[in-house]
Amino acid sequence: MVVGAFPIAKLLYLGVRQMSKPVANRIKAGARRSEFFKTYICLPPAQLYHWIEMRTKMRIMGFKGASIKPLNEEAAAELGAELLGEAIIFFIGGGCMVLEYSRQAANSRRKEEELNETIVSLQTQIAELSLSTETLDAQLREVNRLLLSLPAPTKK
Predict the structure, then answer these.
(1) What is the pLDDT of residues 18-69, one digit of tens each?
(2) Distance between CA 156 and CA 102 in Å, rounded?
(3) DSSP string of 25-75?
(4) Which helix (H) or strand (E) holds 115?
(5) For residue 9, what are the contacts with CB-CB under 8 A and spacing of at least 6?
(6) Cα distance from N-terminal residue to C-terminal residue, the chain
(7) 87-101 per-position pLDDT tens digit
(8) 3-state SS class at 139
(9) 3 state DSSP class of 18
């Protein structure tokens, strides 16, 4: 029974992606506790996300000039932590995709190089065989010429 190669790289990528969710949850929890993360990392993207979301909803409903109030600090910190966690998972998944693509491209390039080497080798063999054929043809013509130049045997 023939077994294909075990895709260890794909298994590692899957493991990394599976681990990204708990890692993101720990980072989110740390971001909620840390005042620096809360103030400078979580709140600005959350407020921007809230502003864009509310602005879009207002335009869809037909309200053009309504002002949008910012989220309170606790809700913004929670939303910012969720956005941070989702961004981490997204970037880890994207990184896995990029690594898998580069691995597949390297495999494809290696196979193409092997195919080109095989083609060059076959072309070299064809050239050598052609040269051998020409040499043998010249020798055969020389033997035929020598045979024709021999005197014919006489009958007794």
Answers:
(1) 887 788 788 778 877 888 888 888 899 999 999 999 999 998 988 877 788 9
(2) 86
(3) HHHHHHHHH-HHIIIIIIHHHHHHHHHHHHHHHHHHHT--S---PPPPHHH
(4) helix 73-149
(5) 99, 100, 103
(6) 76
(7) 888 888 888 888 889
(8) helix
(9) helix
Token pair in block for residue 54: 């509310």
Indicate the residue type of 128: E
* Tokens at 100, concatenated: 């898998």
Instruction: Tell me if 76 sits within 8 A of 43, measured CB to CB.
Output: yes
Structure tokens at 128: 């050598």
Amino acid 117 reads E
The structure's pTM equals 0.63
The Cα 121–Cα 17 span in angstroms is: 44
Contacts of 117 (CB under 8 A, 6+ apart): none
